[in-house]
C-alpha cells in the first residue's frame, strides 16, 4: 500500500494545462481561467504561484497564487486564487497552500487581501482561522453566475514589523 504525501512547491509552466483543466471542473459557472490566463499570471514578476501535489513531481491537485504590489515599505499582497480538486478537498491541501501564500506576505511585512464567495463557508472559516476579517461585500462579483463575494483582509503579521514600530 502506498501513502500519498502533501507537497507544496512552485507552480511551473508545465503545470498550466492541468490547472486550466481543473478550472473547468471547479469553476464552470464563473469564467474558468484558460491556459493563456495562467501563463500571464506566471509570467508577471510580482506574482508567486504554488502547486499542491501528492508526490514530488506529481500532477497538480491544487494551486494558489498571490501578488505583491506597491513599493518597498508600502507593500500589500492580494490572493488571486486557491483551488483544490474536488477529489482532494478536506485533506489539508487548501490550508497548506494558504500557508505558502501567507509566508510570501509575511516575508515582506504586507497585509493580505482576497475575495471569497459569500456561500463558501469552508473557505471563509479557513481564512478567519488564519487572521482574516470581512471588510466588505462585492455584489455580483463572480461572473457570469452573479455570486457575491466578501472582501477579506489580514493585517501584516506583527513578527515582520520593523524595529521600533508599535506592536
From TrEMBL:
Its EC number is 2.3.1.266. SUPFAM superfamilies: Acyl-CoA N-acyltransferases (Nat) (SSF55729). InterPro entries: AcTrfase_RimI/Ard1, Acyl_CoA_acyltransferase, GNAT_dom, YpeA/RimI_acetyltransf. It is an enzyme of class 2 (transferase). One of its GO terms (molecular function) is protein-N-terminal-alanine acetyltransferase activity. Gene3D superfamilies: 3.40.630.30. GO terms for cellular component: ribosome. Residues 6-157 form the N-acetyltransferase domain. It comes from the Bacteria. Keywords: Acyltransferase, Cytoplasm, Ribonucleoprotein, Ribosomal protein, Transferase. It holds the Pfam family Acetyltransf_1. Belongs to the acetyltransferase family. RimI subfamily. NCBIfam families: rimI. This is Ribosomal protein S18-alanine N-acetyltransferase. It comes from Gordonia prachuapensis. The lineage of its organism: Bacteria, Bacillati, Actinomycetota, Actinomycetes, Mycobacteriales.
Amino acid at each position: 500500500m502506498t501513502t500519498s504525501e502533501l507537497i507544496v512547491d512552485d507552480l511551473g509552466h508545465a503545470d498550466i494545462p492541468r490547472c486550466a483543466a481543473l478550472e473547468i471542473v471547479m469553476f464552470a459557472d464563473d469564467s474558468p481561467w484558460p491556459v493563456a490566463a495562467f501563463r500571464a499570471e506566471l509570467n508577471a514578476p510580482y506574482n508567486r504561484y504554488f502547486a499542491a501535489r501528492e508526490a514530488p513531481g506529481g500532477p497538480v491537485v491544487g494551486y494558489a497564487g498571490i501578488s505583491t504590489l506597491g513599493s518597498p515599505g508600502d507593500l500589500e499582497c492580494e490572493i488571486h486564487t486557491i483551488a483544490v480538486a474536488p477529489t482532494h478537498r478536506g485533506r489539508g491541501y487548501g490550508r497548506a497552500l494558504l500557508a505558502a501564500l501567507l509566508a510570501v506576505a509575511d516575508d515582506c511585512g504586507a497585509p493580505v487581501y482576497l475575495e471569497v464567495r459569500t456561500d463558501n463557508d469552508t473557505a471563509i472559516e479557513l481564512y478567519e482561522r488564519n487572521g482574516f476579517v470581512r471588510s466588505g461585500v462585492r455584489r455580483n462579483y463572480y461572473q457570469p453566475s452573479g455570486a457575491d463575494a466578501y472582501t477579506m483582509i489580514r493585517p501584516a503579521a506583527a513578527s515582520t514589523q520593523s524595529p521600533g514600530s508599535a506592536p
